[in-house]
C-alpha cells in the first residue's frame, strides 16, 4: 500500500510524472487489457480503448482523491471507456448495443488473437446475452477473480447487488449453455 501512495505522489508531481506513468503502465497494462477485452471482445478495439483509458488516467491523475484504491479508480475509467466505445459503435452503425456485442462475438472466431475453442466461443455468446451490468459483474468475477469489495468500488454499487447480479448471470449462462 505504501508503494501505491508513493506512486500516486510521483504521478502527481511534475518532476516524476513521466517515469511514474511508465511504471503505472507496466504494472496495470495487462490486467486492464483483459478487463477491457472481456467487454469489447476485439483485440484491436481493446488496444484503442486501453490507449484512451491510459490517456484519461494521465490527464486526470491530479483529480484522484484516494477515496478508493488506484486500481479501482483505473478499472472504473477502463469500464466507462469500454461502455462509451460500445455506445459510440452502436450509434455509428445505427444499431443497438446488443447488436454491436453480437457482431463482436461473431467476429471472435476469425480474430487471430482469440485463443479459445468452440466452448469458449459458446461461453462468450452466452455472456453477450446478459444485460450490460451482469456482463460486467460476471466477467470481473469469473475471468478476473475480482473480489466483490473491490468490484463495489469499481462499479459503485453494493456488494449484495453484485452478488445477486453474478448469481443471476450464472443461472442465465447455464441455461444458455444447456439449451439445444
UniProtKB/TrEMBL annotation:
Highest taxon in the source lineage: Bacteria
Keyword annotations of the record: Sigma factor, Transcription, Transcription regulation
Biological process annotations from GO: DNA-templated transcription initiation
Residue span(s) of domain RNA polymerase sigma factor 70 region 4 type: 121-173
Pfam families: Sigma70_r2 (PF04542), Sigma70_r4_2 (PF08281)
InterPro entries membership: RNA_pol_sigma-70-like, RNA_pol_sigma-70_dom, RNA_pol_sigma70_r2, RNA_pol_sigma70_r4_t2, RNA_pol_sigma_r2, RNA_pol_sigma_r3/r4-like, WH-like_DNA-bd_sf
Record-linked NCBIfam families: sigma70-ECF
Protein family membership: Belongs to the sigma-70 factor family. ECF subfamily.
Name under which the protein is recorded: RNA polymerase sigma-70 factor (ECF subfamily)
Organism of this sequence: Algibacter lectus
Amino acid at each position: 500500500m505504501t508503494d501505491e501512495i508513493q506512486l500516486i505522489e510521483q504521478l502527481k508531481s511534475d518532476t516524476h510524472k513521466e517515469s511514474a506513468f511508465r511504471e503505472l503502465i507496466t504494472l496495470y497494462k495487462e490486467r486492464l487489457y483483459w478487463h477491457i477485452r472481456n467487454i469489447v471482445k476485439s483485440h484491436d478495439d481493446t488496444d484503442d480503448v486501453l490507449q484512451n483509458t491510459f490517456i484519461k488516467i494521465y490527464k486526470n491523475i491530479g483529480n484522484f482523491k484516494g477515496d478508493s484504491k488506484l486500481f479501482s479508480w483505473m478499472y472504473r475509467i477502463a469500464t466507462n471507456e469500454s461502455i462509451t466505445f460500445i455506445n459510440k459503435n452502436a450509434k455509428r452503425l445505427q444499431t443497438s448495443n446488443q447488436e454491436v456485442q453480437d457482431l463482436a462475438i461473431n467476429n471472435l472466431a476469425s480474430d487471430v488473437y482469440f485463443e479459445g475453442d468452440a466452448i469458449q466461443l459458446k461461453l462468450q455468446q452466452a455472456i453477450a446475452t446478459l444485460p450490460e451490468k451482469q456482463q460486467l459483474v460476471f466477467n470481473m468475477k469469473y475471468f478476473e477473480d475480482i473480489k466483490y469489495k473491490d468490484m463495489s468500488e469499481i462499479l459503485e454499487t453494493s456488494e449484495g447487488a453484485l452478488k445477486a447480479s453474478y448469481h443471476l448471470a450464472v443461472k442465465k449462462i447455464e441455461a444458455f449453455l444447456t439449451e439445444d
